[in-house]
């Protein structure tokens, strides 16, 4: 027997919402998904009229759906936003080149301007070259740090007011769990925030996550029924490990109680830290001016390591070496030896 | 952060196996018998000393238990609480250096009725527990879970911070204790009487489990549709019984045997259950949520491994009692799932438990649990934690509510711009909308006085307890002290609504 849509009660339901368990027809599901994103945007006042907003586009499902939904909502509710796509080309053959194809398709379909910034032009290194030097371990550290900064640099080049990323509810909940497992209270405290403040410093553009409350499964369903094309392949360099544990745990939780993802985020939003817990202070990098809690920002340290042929310099904590890096002084032979190789 | 075998600096570092030295690392004489942590091999005597010291140090450091105070030890029969009982015995024994000076009693909650144990099994467990308790010479209370059906409402009423102790500083209390032991004892009695005035009398006797209560308990637990909810409810009811027994008998502290491992699991499972706001009271050393009775967790520095070793080496008896989660799969409930997740991860990354545990030390409750004028309506009916209904529209709880309402077609269908795929006008039911609305703090504005309907009950609960009740088929199976207290609070909120316009002070918080 066909199931009726629980929302309009007249059409036939085609799916069961992962988030609430209700059976919905296509139209009602689209409506609910878009309306929820709209409410996230308006209740948290993510955008102001007339702003230029860059959508961090990777070609994957989250950013594809985000770009589509933002375009729809911008027209439907007349946000008055100037939307554009911003992609980062890490230089990973067989992965990013393909996914950028997907982004370019999106650009044509949605008729949005696209800007691609590449690691090669920003740092002089592609990920392929980095992996050649660093090896397959630890290279995600480079990629993650560089991408964060690359997005900001791209945004500055385009002179945008805000960046929005496709982080979904699963990502946020997973990060809450990760930060508990790692004991990182500073990040735990801020990882559930829907947007970051610009902070006034140069080169830092405020970011937000309009899909923060959207379940990953619903994003896939939305893309499926809207027939959106996206690129879905794991990065060739990242077979997940520790984060994978948190991810698997979250999926299990969701299977036991579907609201668990929202519940974890709720918990994260309501945590508060004891006074007197030491927190890193945000400063700026004395070399490039980017935000940093240390004298040198992580990406400058990583880059220095790559350029000196000492890739381990940026892996782990070597704050005491920052002074000498800044002064462009050489390290002692013993230190060099330690930083050189990643094989052990 | 996401590669196979990536090395982690700091807490998550995978440690290589140490070379086992045969000598104890402490006295460097005797042969080591166990390795507690990487590199720390202990001989039997040094381990014992280390273990005993840790317990005293925990109590000494925190200074919340005053000399002469009556302390209730919650013993489940499991390894951790049994070990705690032994530690208290040891600390009170005459030859102990730094003798403990409080007056202990024991409580055991017989949960057999909720866990499908037959009468024979329950009888057997009880007699075994009693034998252990009798040996200690401490007074003990054996309470069956069925007794929640005869608890008075007063359990759920918040009590303003207990009778002020003479000289609230620890040092003064010690002096006083030394000077006049007897007077102090009489004061203890006074406190008892006070507590007894506050709560209705109830004879707490294990043998008297009436068949009606037995049935009622079975009905309650079969009405809970998920194991997650059943385990959560059991935990809540157990706390209420312990609290009631403590008040009735004048105990002002309750000791729980939660180990570090247990607390790490609880922290993570509470996050998954949406209890983020009350993590600190749920896992901290002391838990002041009940006001006059404070829960303390003196075993929170021991890992379950240390406890297991101690119990084995020094013959501490513990019992295996099958519970709700026994013989179920790892993924049967959120609590089970978290437990197996943490334990498996701990096996691969030995600092998992301690890292999670240290995270908990840095947290405190988002909403202060005890503001001076705290009223009942501010606290969750079940867990007695602050009901933190942030009226913030940009929050996960609000977003879930919106999803729920959108999926039921209760929200703004008239604004729908795609009428082709759907009927033109939605079934906008103002009543159900209003009922749903109470989740965000509009509970007081609903319909006329009547027995609490499902939605009404939820308005009195915190986010997490609301989830538990949501998994319930019939809310009328809840014990009467809960339903009648709910009704009372509901009526009061109603009353307040009626006279609202005449009230000079705007006490919004009470209608939450």
Automatic annotation (TrEMBL), chain A:
Highest taxon above the source species: Eukaryota
UniProt record, GO biological process: protein urmylation; tRNA wobble position uridine thiolation
Signal peptide as annotated in the record: none
Pathway field: tRNA modification; 5-methoxycarbonylmethyl-2-thiouridine-tRNA biosynthesis
InterPro entries, sorted: CTU1-like_ATP-bd (IPR056369), CTU1_C (IPR032442), Ncs6/Tuc1/Ctu1 (IPR000541), Rossmann-like_a/b/a_fold (IPR014729), TilS/TtcA_N (IPR011063), tRNA_thiolation_TtcA_Ctu1 (IPR035107), UPF0021_CS (IPR020554)
Pfam families: ATP_bind_3, zn-ribbon_14
Species annotation: Electrophorus electricus
Residues annotated as domain Cytoplasmic tRNA 2-thiolation protein 1 C-terminal: 283-313
Locations listed in the record: Cytoplasm
Gene behind this protein: ctu1
GO cellular component, one term: cytosolic tRNA wobble base thiouridylase complex
CDD domains in the record: CTU1-like
Name listed for the protein in its UniProt record: Cytoplasmic tRNA 2-thiolation protein 1
KW Translocase (keyword) present: no
Coiled coil: none
Keywords: ATP-binding, Cytoplasm, Nucleotide-binding, RNA-binding, Transferase, tRNA processing, tRNA-binding
This protein's record includes keyword Cytoplasm: yes
Family: Belongs to the TtcA family. CTU1/NCS6/ATPBD3 subfamily.
EC number: 2.7.7.-
tRNA(Ile)-lysidine/2-thiocytidine synthase N-terminal domain segment(s): 53-235
TrEMBL record, chain B:
Gene Ontology cellular component list: cytosol
Keywords, alphabetical: Cytoplasm, tRNA processing
Keyword Electron transport listed: no
Gene3D superfamilies associated with the record: HUPs
GO function terms (MF aspect): nucleotidyltransferase activity; sulfurtransferase activity; tRNA binding
Major subcellular site: cytoplasm
Metabolic or biological pathway, per its Swiss-Prot or TrEMBL entry: tRNA modification; 5-methoxycarbonylmethyl-2-thiouridine-tRNA biosynthesis
One Pfam entry name: CTU2
Record-linked InterPro entries: CTU2, Rossmann-like_a/b/a_fold
Keyword Cytoplasm: yes
Compartment(s) where it occurs, according to its Swiss-Prot or TrEMBL record: Cytoplasm
GO terms of biological process kind: protein urmylation; tRNA wobble position uridine thiolation
Protein family (similarity comment): Belongs to the CTU2/NCS2 family.
UniProt xrefs under HAMAP family: CTU2
Function: Plays a central role in 2-thiolation of mcm(5)S(2)U at tRNA wobble positions of tRNA(Lys), tRNA(Glu) and tRNA(Gln). May act by forming a heterodimer with CTU1/ATPBD3 that ligates sulfur from thiocarboxylated URM1 onto the uridine of tRNAs at wobble position.
Protein name (database record): Cytoplasmic tRNA 2-thiolation protein 2
């Amino acid at each position: 027997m066909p199931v009726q849509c629980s929302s309009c009660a007249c059409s036939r339901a085609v799916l069961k919402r992962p988030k609430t368990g209700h059976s919905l027809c296509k139209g009602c599901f689209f409506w609910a998904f878009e309306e929820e994103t709209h409410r996230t945007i308006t209740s948290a006042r993510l955008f102001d009229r007339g702003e230029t907003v860059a959508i961090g586009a990777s070609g994957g499902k989250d950013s594809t759906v985000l770009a589509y939904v933002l375009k729809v909502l911008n027209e439907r509710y007349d946000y008055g936003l100037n939307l554009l796509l911003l992609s980062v080309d890490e230089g990973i053959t067989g992965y990013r080149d393909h996914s950028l194809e997907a982004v370019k398709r999106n650009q044509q379909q949605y008729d949005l301007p696209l800007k691609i910034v590449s690691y090669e032009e920003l740092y002089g290194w592609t990920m392929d070259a980095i992996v050649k030097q660093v090896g397959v371990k630890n290279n995600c550290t480079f990629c993650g740090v560089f991408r964060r900064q690359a997005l900001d640099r791209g945004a500055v080049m385009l002179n945008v007011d805000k960046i929005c990323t496709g982080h979904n509810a699963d990502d946020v909940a997973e990060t809450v769990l990760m930060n508990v497992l790692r004991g990182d209270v500073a990040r735990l405290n801020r990882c559930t925030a829907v947007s970051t403040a610009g902070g006034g410093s140069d080169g830092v553009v405020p970011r937000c996550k309009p899909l923060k409350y959207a379940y990953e499964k619903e994003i896939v369903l939305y893309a499926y029924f809207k027939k959106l094309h996206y690129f879905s392949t794991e990065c060739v360099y990242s077979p997940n490990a520790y984060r994978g544990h948190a991810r698997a745990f979250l999926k299990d939780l969701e299977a036991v109680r579907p609201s668990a993802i929202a519940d974890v985020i709720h918990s994260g939003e309501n945590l508060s830290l004891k006074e007197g817990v030491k927190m890193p202070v945000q400063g700026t990098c004395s070399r490039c001016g980017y935000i940093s809690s240390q004298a040198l920002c992580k990406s400058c340290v990583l880059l220095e390591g790559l350029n000196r042929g000492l890739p381990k310099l940026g892996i782990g904590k070597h704050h005491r070496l920052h002074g000498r890096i800044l002064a462009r002084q050489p390290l002692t032979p013993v230190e060099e030896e330690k930083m050189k190789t990643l094989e052990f | 952060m996401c590669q196979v075998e990536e090395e982690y600096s700091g807490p998550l570092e995978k440690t290589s196996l140490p070379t086992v030295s045969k000598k104890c690392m402490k006295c460097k004489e005797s042969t080591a018998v166990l390795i507690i942590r990487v590199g720390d091999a202990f001989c039997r005597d040094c381990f014992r000393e280390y273990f005993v010291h840790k317990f005293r140090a925990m109590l000494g450091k925190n200074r919340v238990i005053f000399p002469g105070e009556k302390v209730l030890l919650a013993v489940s029969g499991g390894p951790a609480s049994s070990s705690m009982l032994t530690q208290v015995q040891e600390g009170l024994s005459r030859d102990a250096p730094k003798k403990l000076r409080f007056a202990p009693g024991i409580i055991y909650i017989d949960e057999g009725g909720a866990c499908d144990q037959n009468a024979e099994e329950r009888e057997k467990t009880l007699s075994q527990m009693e034998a252990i308790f009798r040996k200690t010479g401490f007074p003990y209370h054996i309470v069956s879970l069925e007794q929640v059906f005869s608890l008075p409402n007063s359990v759920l009423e918040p009590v303003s911070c207990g009778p002020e102790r003479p000289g609230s500083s620890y040092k003064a209390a010690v002096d006083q204790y030394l000077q006049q032991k007897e007077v102090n004892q009489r004061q203890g009695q006074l406190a008892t009487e006070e507590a007894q005035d506050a709560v209705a009398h109830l004879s707490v006797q294990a043998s008297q489990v009436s068949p009606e209560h037995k049935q009622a308990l079975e009905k309650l637990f079969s009405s809970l549709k998920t194991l997650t909810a059943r385990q959560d409810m059991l935990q809540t009811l157990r706390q209420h019984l312990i609290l009631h027994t403590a008040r009735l008998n004048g105990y002002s502290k309750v000791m729980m045997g939660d180990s570090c491992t247990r607390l790490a699991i609880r922290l993570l499972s509470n996050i998954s259950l949406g209890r983020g706001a009350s993590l600190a009271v749920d896992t901290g050393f002391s838990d002041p949520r009940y006001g006059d009775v404070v829960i303390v967790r003196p075993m929170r520095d021991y890992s379950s491994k240390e406890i297991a070793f101690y119990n084995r080496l020094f013959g501490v008896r513990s019992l295996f009692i099958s519970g709700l989660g026994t013989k179920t799969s790892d993924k049967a409930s959120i609590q089970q799932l978290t437990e197996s997740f943490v334990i498996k991860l701990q096996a691969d990354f030995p600092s998992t438990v301690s890292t999670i545990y240290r995270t908990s030390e840095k947290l405190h409750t988002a909403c202060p649990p005890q503001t001076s004028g705290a009223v009942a309506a501010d606290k969750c009916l079940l867990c007695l934690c602050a009901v933190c209904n942030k009226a913030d529209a940009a929050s996960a709880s609000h977003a879930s509510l919106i999803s729920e309402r959108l999926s039921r077609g209760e929200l703004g269908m008239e604004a729908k711009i795609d009428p082709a795929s759907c009927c033109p006008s939605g079934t906008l039911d103002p009543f159900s909308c209003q009922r749903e609305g109470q989740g965000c703090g509009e509970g007081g504005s609903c319909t006329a006085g009547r027995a609490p309907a499902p939605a009404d009950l939820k308005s009195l609960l915190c986010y997490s307890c609301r989830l538990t009740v949501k998994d319930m088929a019939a809310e009328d199976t809840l014990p009467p002290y809960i339903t009648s207290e709910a009704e009372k609070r509901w009526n009061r909120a109603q009353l307040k609504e009626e006279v609202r316009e005449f009230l000079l002070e705007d006490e919004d918080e009470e209608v939450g």
